[in-house]
Amino acid sequence: MTLPPKPPARPGKVSLWTYARLFRQDILSAQPARLYHAWMAEFRTPFFRSYMCNDPKLVDLVLKERPDDFPKSDRIREGLAPLLGNSVFVTNGETWKRQRRIIDPAFEGGRLRDTFPAMWDAGVAAVERLRARADGTPIEIEAETSEAAADVIFRTLFSIPIEHETASGVFKVFKAHQRAQPVLNLGAVLPLPKWFPRFHSRETKRTAREIRALITQLTAQRMTEIEAGTAPDDLATKIMTTRDPQTGHTFDTGEMVDQVAIFFLAGHETSASALAWSLYLLALYPEWQEQVAEEAAAVIDPDKIYFSTLKKLKITRDVFREALRLYPPVPMMVREATKCEHLRDREVKPGSQIVLSPWHQQRHERIWERPDDFDPGRFETENGKFGLRTAYMPFSAGARVCTGSGFAMAEGPLLLALLVQAFRFETVPGRAAMPVAHLTVRGKDGIWLRLTPRA
Ligand code: HEM
User: Fold this and answer.
1) 264 close to ligand 1 (CB < 6 Angstrom)
2) 137-189: per-residue pLDDT in tens?
3) Atom of ligand 1 lying closest to residue 87 CA
4) CA-to-CA distance for 271 and 147, rounded, in angstroms?
5) End-to-end CA distance of the chain
6) Hey, which of 91, 254, 288, 417 would disulfide with 96, CB 3.0 to 4.6 Å?
7) Distance from the alpha carbon of residue 274 to the mean position of ligand 1, in angstroms
């Protein structure tokens, strides 16, 4: 059976500078194959040490048991500062805790039910956009899923579709921003000392300013609507009217702009990547695609939007889960040790980097049977359930787990079902996809598919 594409590992030992060069091209193929079966690995640089932890016990220690001792490194904040300011994604300590107390209620289960119809509308709109192009001509599907995921964010957050002038403005400028700074968090993992200056190009700063100006317009307008009592009941209103239970404060417009920027960035890039890989996998494995199509036809009633539909999309959810296992949109996360630590049999000094890698954990040869196979049925097996419990973290874990994990697990299967119900997806000869990790796991030369209508 053909395996889903996996980047080749780098050959054996290389010098630091070769590593840096490979790393710049792609974080995944810069790593050696031994990381797929090691519990822990050490990378030495002249400036600091970096430790990849694959042992589930170590991952739990860092993410769940003592997260305050392993904060996000300042390098991440520096890399993302022009766009994100002081958003929840980059803050630490008390500021981060206060931000999560205000944001989390908006993403709880009950609210998700209220958000669901807007997700559905975005899915239907994506089907309509693609219908005109579903004539078998190759389509770069990441661009489409990116637009669909951005549409979901704008509809759920601000009750506006992607065609809205400001929403399409943000989406357009964001593409330019990515071109200006394609490897956003490279600075976070590159072996450079802390004192090394990090430059943001003029274009990066300009596009970040432009995106923030557009988001400020939306946020300021919403503040006025809230004050006038005319605001729609969506995520933005919920977040902007939630008081921190400890201090009684709400976000001011500036702080809300930082949060909206991260919801847009974290919420659309990741979901777009997961959806594109899911569709590619279904094109590679048509027998699974047929099962998803049958399930969608049996479960989805185009005239009735029920939240309970989601529970019935079992096969679709397992396909999406398996895509997140093989192609976790956030392939690696970085934390910093603040104290001397003894991890397995290594002494880890303060300032060392701790790298947690969903990419390697979720393909770990000592945890998963047939780790590189695409098999959504695995989650029904003992091994699959064990893997889910111990080595599955596409949304990270612990206190800093992705705020939008429930949201994404509703959006992903729903959009997948709506798309596969409408179209048959096929691979394009000569255009096989190969994953590379930039900000998220993307296709090296895009992800190309051919679409034809089902009905
Ligand atoms: C398939 C989709 C998604 C994946 C795989 C994903 C994955 C992740 C991961 C791994 C992190 C932790 C990063 C780290 O600790 O370094 C994270 C954080 C975050 N995600 Fe997501 N995410 C997804 C969708 C979303 C959506 C839809 C939203 C919001 C609408 C969102 C909002 C956030 C926020 C705000 C954080 C920062 C949380 C914190 O640091 O406290 N994500 N996400």
Assistant:
1) no
2) 999 999 999 999 999 999 999 999 999 999 999 999 888 887 766 444 444 45
3) 35
4) 10
5) 30
6) 91
7) 13
